[in-house]
Write a structure and sequence with these properties.
CATH topology: Na+/H+ antiporter like fold
Main location: membrane
Radius of gyration: 21 Å
Mean pLDDT: 82
Protein name: Sodium/hydrogen exchanger family protein
CATH class: Mainly Alpha
Distance between the termini: 52 Å
Structural class: mainly alpha
GO molecular function, one term: antiporter activity
Keywords: Antiport, Cell membrane, Ion transport, Membrane, Transmembrane, Transmembrane helix, Transport
Order of helices and strands: HHHHHHHHHHHHHHHHHHH
Number of strands: 0
Membrane topology: Multi-pass membrane protein
């Protein structure tokens, strides 16, 4: 245990110290985390001997996603949704549904042995994008502002939007297996959504009221104030789960509402929460690289890899081109936006969450998710900086 702790702590220290140097090169952070897990894990040198069972992996994934959903939602500038011809709004309301539909249709062709509803689950868990993999894009001032803000807002909100869609398909599968009335599936979904939304609205309101009281009485201490929003994120998630709702819906809606309530102090209060989510994300990527990714080479088929390639190209790019129709953007810029839809943390977490579901082809779904994320980490990590520089130079 202590050997693992020493290795992970050393990596975290080195990376956090030289993060600027690492992320200015071709290798992105998640790609380095993945390679680190592969190299030192059981499939590589065997130095990092992680004993994480399925329940432990699920807990790590759930806590990571809850913090990421809350932070991304709280950070989202909803005013940007209407700016620049509504670019992010087009990506979310047109591109995202078309991506899920396209993923389902391609799955019917490439993976005919997978039941249609399970293909819908696969298409949904592969739909969210991860801005961390394209950080060289969304943080690069050479890239036009509408493109950067559009991709950033899209990646911050699409994982939260995909949660109820994923819950719906899982509820329909459960209803089909139990031969229960279809209405029962929608009642289950409505209950999870309703409780999640209610928790996500009430707890931030309560926290905001306590924060105002503390400020008025001069009871606040800066070093402890930084823990308000991280604590609120975990409270929203855990409370909704206890009450039978969706903790992810609670975290996402709670983040959106908190971003509005705490808007004056939002950036200061979110710093610690973003640090927690970054640290958990690093460990999630390392565990994924060490324990999950190596299985891809032995359990996936040619059809799965073809689907992974299609997921990163035609399934993503065509819906983006359709959603951007009529905008004053040249073809290369549209292709740039379509290509930089990297799959990462949300896909990993969604894949982990369906491990406990009684799906007929769960191995195929997990394998496809692994293949897609591995390809995305490599291809988007290597192409982000060069294409961003090219686009920036051409625009100038």
């Amino acid at each position: 245990m202590y050997q693992n702790l020493a290795i992970l702590a050393a990596f975290l220290l080195v990376y956090s110290t030289f993060a600027g140097a690492f992320e200015s090169r071709l290798l992105s952070g998640p790609l380095l985390f993945l390679l680190f897990g592969l190299l030192l894990g059981p499939a590589g040198l065997g130095v990092l001997e992680l004993r994480v069972d399925k329940e432990g992996l699920r807990t790590l994934a759930e806590l990571t996603l809850a913090l990421v959903l809350f932070s991304d939602a709280a950070n989202a500038d909803l005013g940007v949704l209407r700016a620049h011809e509504g670019l992010p709004l087009r990506l979310l309301l047109i591109g995202l549904p078309l991506t899920i539909l396209g993923g389902w249709l391609v799955g019917l062709w490439l993976l005919p042995e997978v039941p249609p509803l399970e293909l819908a689950v696969l298409a949904t868990l592969l739909a969210p994008t991860d801005a961390a993999l394209g950080k060289a894009v969304v943080s690069n001032p050479l890239v036009p502002t509408p493109v950067r803000e559009g991709l950033n807002v899209e990646s911050g909100l699409n994982d939260g939007i995909c949660v109820p869609v994923l819950l719906l398909f899982l509820a329909l599968i459960a209803e089909e297996q139990l031969n229960a009335p279809l209405l029962l599936a929608f009642r289950l979904l409505a209950g999870q959504l309703g409780i999640g939304l209610l928790v996500g609205l009430l707890l931030p309101l309560l926290a905001w009221g306590l924060q105002r009281l503390s400020r008025r009485e001069n009871w606040q201490i800066p070093r402890w104030s930084q823990l308000v929003l991280p604590g609120l994120a975990l409270l929203c998630f855990a409370t909704a789960q206890v009450l039978g709702g969706s903790g992810f819906i609670a975290a996402f809606s709670g983040g959106l509402f908190s971003g509005y309530l705490f808007r004056q102090d939002k950036q200061r209060l979110l710093e610690a929460g973003e640090g927690f989510s970054e640290a958990l994300s690093i460990f999630t990527w390392i565990v994924f690289g060490a324990l999950v990714a190596p299985k891809a080479s032995s359990i996936v088929s040619v059809e799965v890899w073809l689907y992974a390639i299609a997921s990163l190209t035609v399934i993503r790019v065509v819906p983006v081109l359709v959603s951007l129709a009529g905008m004053r953007l040249d073809l290369e810029t549209r292709l740039f936006i379509g290509w930089f839809g990297p799959r990462g943390l949300a896909t990993i977490v969604f894949a982990v969450l369906i491990l406990d579901e009684h799906l007929q082809r769960s191995n195929t779904l997990i394998s496809t998710a692994i293949a897609t994320v591995v390809l995305s980490v490599v291809l988007h990590g290597l192409s982000a900086t060069p294409w961003a520089r090219r686009l920036g130079a051409r625009v100038r």
